[in-house]
Amino acid sequence: MRYTHLNKNLPAGNPIANILVIIAGALVIGVSIVLGFFAFVALSAIVLVSAAVIGIRVWWLNRKLRAQAHPGTTSTQRESPASVEVIEGEYQVIPDDRDEA
């Protein structure tokens, strides 16, 4: 069985009912867009705050690890590898004969 309607666009033959359906549909679409925008803004804010917290935590842990690698120095006291001086020298092993004599 096939049912066909002459007026496929609007659900009712009453023009006032048609106008009310159009207004209600436009309001529902408008409210959906506004709520969707605010949900997007809220979700974006949550993601940004989470990224900032994670970034600060990673920075803090890296700072603590660097401080543990160089105990007794602060970040301003550490020297760069290019400014470290190396003192070269020679050594000679002297046998300890004191115990045998």
In short:
54% of the residues lie in helices and 0% in strands. The protein is an all-alpha fold and 101 residues long.
Shape, principal axes of CA atoms: rod-shaped
Series of secondary-structure elements, N-terminal to C-terminal: H
Return the structural class. mainly alpha
Helix % is 40-55%
Question: Would you identify the regions where 5 or more consecutive residues have pLDDT less than 50?
Answer: none
How large a portion of the residues is in β-strands, by DSSP E?
A: under 5%
Mean pLDDT: 83
Note the total helix count. Answer: 1
Q: Rounded to an integer, what's the Rg over CA atoms?
A: 39 Å
Largest sheet: none
What distance separates the N and C termini? Answer: 124 Å
Query: How many beta-strand runs?
Result: 0
Descriptive overview:
This protein has 1 helix and no strands. The protein is an all-alpha fold and 101 residues long. The protein has one helix at residues 15-69. The radius of gyration is 39 Å and the shape is rod-shaped. It has a domain at 15-83. The protein starts with 14 loop residues before the first helix and ends in a 32-residue tail after the last helix.
Helices and strands in order:
Blueprint: H1 15-69
